[in-house]
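Write out structure tokens for Aldo/keto reductase.
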Amino acid sequence: MSTVFARLKEVASPSIGLGCMNLSHAYGSPVPEPEALRALDQAFDMGYRHFDTATLYGKTANERLVGKALAGRRDQVLLASKCGMAFDPELGRKAIDGRPETLRRQCEASLARLGTDHLDLYYLHRLDRRVPIEESVGALGRLVEEGKIRAVGLSEVSAATLRRARVERPIAAVQSEYSLWTRNPEIALIEACREADTALVAFSPLGRGFLTGTITEVESLEAKDIRRNMPRFSAENLPRNLRQLEAVRAVAAELEATPAQLALAWLRAQGDDVIPIPGSRSVAHMRENLAAEELSLEAATVTRLNAMMTPEQVAGERYSEALQGEIDTEEFA
């Protein structure tokens, strides 16, 4: 287990973290700040100690929100953020920029927004193909030496990129989409992470809400919701995927758990070095997700689930063509 997460376990924190993006970004309209602050306050009270945000989310609003919510509690949490992908007001859109001077500038701005003098974990949000990964990671390493960050992470990278990066600097964590219906890390990344004593932080562990069973038609999503443009949620593919989900729901019912809890328990069964960070706009769902800590799956159940929602059974790619071009992860043939 990488050092940054080993320290977290020493204070008996849960192995499930909280992705904060949903409160400000991507899934429809942002949650009003007073409501979002109450949600984060309750998340802390119910036991969450690993909070994940990014410069990009809400065009920096999410970092300010998380900073306000954790004021006075900073030394009790693992705080993670990301750089290298941000909204560019001059371009009017997000931009990927892994140049050392950009990463330093974004880090210092993030520290100010979050009201802290250091980040426990700082990820390169996306690989900038114009900048050698060694240069970007070297810049993050200098921020470690200056005490501005405690550990370096990468997001949505391939095993090959991780291997190059760790020659330059130890990589504490790689964040990648991983869930029952997104198994891409199993191609090569998990093995590379274990070679390097690097944790795999699983974002979208509930399949962007699909694995909860609550999304039954794309029309139910807000007009601005990014899932409307994701192939797996299309009017053609969603019904096919919902049929695949029925088997997962049946196992959850057998165990008297919710589908979300079962999906998180399956991820936790992949190893102590796999750390899910489900996000939610709902306090009730945050509580439901955290309760998955208490669900331990027998090996036979894990084997059953392994055979469900496999790549050949899932209809549609996980990203649109444009978003697919931004990532560096391995893909199934």
